[in-house]
Amino acid sequence: MHALDVDWEHPTDPRPGPRLDHVRAYVTTAGADGHLWHGVPTLLLTTLDRDSGRTLRTPLIYCEDTGRHLVLASAYGAPEHPRWYRNLTAHPEVRLQVGAACFTAQARTATPGEREMYWEMMTALWPPFEDDRAAARPREIPLVILERTD
């Protein structure tokens, strides 16, 4: 699917529950309610589903470094990578909402050196990521770098 054909404006949101409540609050308040979640910054990542061609929106904890946004594909320590990560490896163009700002970005998995450098930053922000890493073994949790393109 060509980037111009992607419907970034009408993504599918999470199933009913706390994640959907978070996304709805974030979107309806332009991030005023939802950007900070349990005291940590979150963004909304919209990916193109590799199977259906629909766009899917996911709230994620993030860090920022020199204008790049960093997220972890932890999936709470599940044995498989989360769907959003599998989607962006197939289609690396994504859409972000960070607070009130909405923009496209290019996603890539961090190199081993970048992952090592940023892991401590991510776990300092959200210590449970260390628990996720232990639970996910032998799966290595990917760190994703999102670089703005517009």
Automatic annotation (TrEMBL):
Catalysed reaction(s) here are: oxidized coenzyme F420-(gamma-L-Glu)(n) + a quinol + H(+) = reduced coenzyme F420-(gamma-L-Glu)(n) + a quinone
What is the protein's given name?
Deazaflavin-dependent oxidoreductase (Nitroreductase family)
Q: Which family does it belong to?
A: Belongs to the F420H(2)-dependent quinone reductase family.
Q: Which Gene3D superfamilies match?
A: Electron Transport, Fmn-binding Protein, Chain A
Origin organism of this chain? Streptomyces avidinii
Signal peptide residue numbers: none
Q: What is one Pfam family matched by this protein?
A: F420H2_quin_red
Which InterPro entries does the record associate with it? Answer: F420H2_quin_Rdtase (IPR004378), Split_barrel_FMN-bd (IPR012349)
